[in-house]
């Protein structure tokens, strides 16, 4: 990642933390009221679009449930279509799933862990060709929740892949930054 991008993300994080308004949690639940399972659920995910020389379409929905007022867990799916016009035959898709946990340290700051498994077209150095393979990742990180009201908002998550391998990982770098929405 370039130095300019690092400065941009650090500045954006600083501004979000510095100028946060009224702090709403991701989902406010009062355990004394014994909320139903439906009231403790939340939905969201990521949507990414890039068009041009490299086309990328990413759809990654998720569903989670508040287990306690600060702890939640859930599942998600990922589908990505990519096409790189610089290389012949470089179009394809990847798909997979993930399970995650999240702990709200402060109303807008959370710790996050995730196990993800992605099926993609990886280059096999021994056979000198591309072949479909499953690759696992275990992410640890933290994030910031910017509320859009009492029930929804945006997540800015900064993750590190503990299982990163330069030859076999789906991601080029062990660091992953995600922006997503929940409601």
At a glance:
The protein has helices at residues 3-18, 37-40; strands spanning 41-50, 54-66, 71-84, 91-104, 109-124, 129-147, 153-161, 175-182. It is mainly beta and 183 residues long. It has a single domain (41-182), classed as Porin (Beta Barrel).
Name the overall outline. elongated
Provide the CATH architecture. Answer: Beta Barrel
CATH class: Mainly Beta
Strand content: over 45%
What is the domain tally? 1
Order of helices and strands: HHEEEEEEEE
Average residue-wise pLDDT: 83
N-to-C terminal Cα separation, in Å?
Answer: 31 Å
Largest sheet: spatial strand order: 1-2-3-4-5-6-7-8
Radius of gyration: 18 Å
Percent helix range? 10-25%
Please work out how many helical segments DSSP would assign.
2
Protein described:
The chain has 183 residues and is mainly beta. The chain has one domain: Porin (Beta Barrel), CATH 2.40.160.20. The chain is built from 2 helices and 8 strands; from the N terminus they run ααββββββββ. It has an 8-stranded antiparallel barrel with strand order 1-2-3-4-5-6-7-8. A hairpin with a 4-residue loop joins strand 5 and strand 6. The protein is elongated. About 9% of the residues have low confidence.
Observed structural traits:
183 residues; mainly beta; elongated; single chain; 2 helices; 56% strand
Write the layout of secondary structure elements.
Elements: H1 3-18, H2 37-40, E1 41-50, E2 54-66, E3 71-84, E4 91-104, E5 109-124, E6 129-147, E7 153-161, E8 175-182
Antiparallel strand pairs: 1-2, 1-8, 2-3, 3-4, 4-5, 5-6, 6-7, 7-8
């Amino acid at each position: 990642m370039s130095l300019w991008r690092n400065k941009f993300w650090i500045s954006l994080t600083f501004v979000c933390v510095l100028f946060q308004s009224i702090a709403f949690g991701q989902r406010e639940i009062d355990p004394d009221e014994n909320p139903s399972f439906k009231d403790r659920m939340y939905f969201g995910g990521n949507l990414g679009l890039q068009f041009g020389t490299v086309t990328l379409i990413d759809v990654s929905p998720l569903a989670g449930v508040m287990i306690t007022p600060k702890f939640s867990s859930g599942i998600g799916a990922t589908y990505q279509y990519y096409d790189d016009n610089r290389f012949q035959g470089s179009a394809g898709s990847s798909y997979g799933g993930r399970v995650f946990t999240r702990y709200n340290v402060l109303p807008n700051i959370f710790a996050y862990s995730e196990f993800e498994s992605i099926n993609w077209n990886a280059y096999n150095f021994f056979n000198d060709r591309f072949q479909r393979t499953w690759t696992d990742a275990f992410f640890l990180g933290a994030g910031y929740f910017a509320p859009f009201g009492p029930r929804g908002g945006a997540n800015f998550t900064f993750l590190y892949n503990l299982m990163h391998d330069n030859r076999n990982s789906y991601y080029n770098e062990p660091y992953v930054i995600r922006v997503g929405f929940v409601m």
